[in-house]
Hints:
Elements: H1 13-16, H2 20-26, H3 34-56, H4 62-68, H5 73-101, H6 103-122, H7 127-141, H8 144-155, H9 158-172, H10 174-189, H11 192-213, H12 250-270, H13 277-280, H14 286-291, H15 293-321, H16 336-356, H17 359-391, H18 396-425, H19 427-458
Amino acid sequence: MHQYTEESPLIDAEASTTDPEVLKHDLLYQRFTPAQKQVIVALISWAAVIPFLASGSFVPSIPEIARELGSSGTVISLAVSLSLVTASAGSLLWATYSGSYGRRTIFLTSLPCLCIGSAGVAMSQTVPTLMFWRVVQALGSSSGMSVGAGAIGDIYRLEERGAAMGIFFGASLFGPAIAPLLGGYATHYFSWRLAQWALFVMGLFALLPVWLWLPETLDPEKLRTWGATEEHKKPIFLNPFESLTLLRSPNIFAITLAGTTTLMTDFVLMIPLAYTIGKAYNITNEAIIGAFFLPLGFGNIIGAPLAGRLSDRVVIAWRKRRGGVWVPEDRLRATLWGAAVLVPMSILLSGLTTQFVPGTLGIGLNLVWLFMNGVGVDVVLSPSSAYYVDILHSQSAQTIAASGAFRAAAIACVTAFILPTINTIGVAATDAIFAVVAWIGFGLILMTIKYGDRMRAWVDVGYSTIRDN
């Protein structure tokens, strides 16, 4: 008989091949063929592209929007912070209800909100109206990442999950690669409103294939089908903020903090780009400003699947090394090179280059640092998201939503002070501060890898076991 202590791993390999509950749970991963799973990943990735298109296409348009609406870049930048806060709350809402009504239902409910919000932004004539419709737009787009990641957990086994999550992240992050360029191009040569109408159309083109081809991936035993029984005819009211209690887990909170410090560098580079790189190199064309986002976005596309596959290999290798015993924190080892080197060094070097290296050389080096940051951010975030699903499989969407909500709220607060800080102490000093913050995040990951078993024993939030992972 096995004796378990706080030092024990969550899964015992010997038991996993004989336990009838494990064998029953494994049948959930056999509901769809590999080809069907690829279609599901493609559909949810397309739905998850939209939030990044909505935010990415807006940023290079900020100066033009400020001029047209008679405001300032600082005020219009608050729309980014406001949409981040809304997206964090919306993600919690959609993720919570997706655990009862299913992933498909949530996508079919949230995508129409995105379309309506995009049309509203496009027709806005005042700053308050713009802010309101950005909130609606952000609410509609906020289901993509958390509910999509939950669907990944529904259909892929442990050893396949990292690669699938990486493909999902990489495909969905195609948005940041093209959104700023398209938004800048539309703003410079046509109008910033054109980009918002394009989001309206793309929302429709996401809604239609989801309605036609996306099957329900949630465990049928957990799914509430409207009207299927007398009980199911009654609507249920769930507290979306209850998911935030999952952050009581030291493991979840530590990795969430690490992800926040990582993603923060991305926003510190992106949000003020027109006022940092644009100003330093006398670039006023919004389309060219938007093109600076391409290397960062392509870094995301390359980094996410690379990190996802690497994290699966790390899990398999360390499990073999331990004689078949799985320890969840092994997956986090795949994040270390990104958290220690790529993320902090990219923002540090970008700040120094922007402030001290003029001309073509400075522009070229900044493109390299932006690409480096894009790769590094996803090397940290992709395995971290798979780790959330690994240790809280039954609450995967809620965990990712809680983590994302915390990150969004923290980053929303930070983005409001980025431009004022740069104006006060300079871009090099500002970026150096956030490089140090990113290294603190690296330390949190190291701590979780070393002490993860003890941290899980401190607070039990319903961690996955052999029976439900």
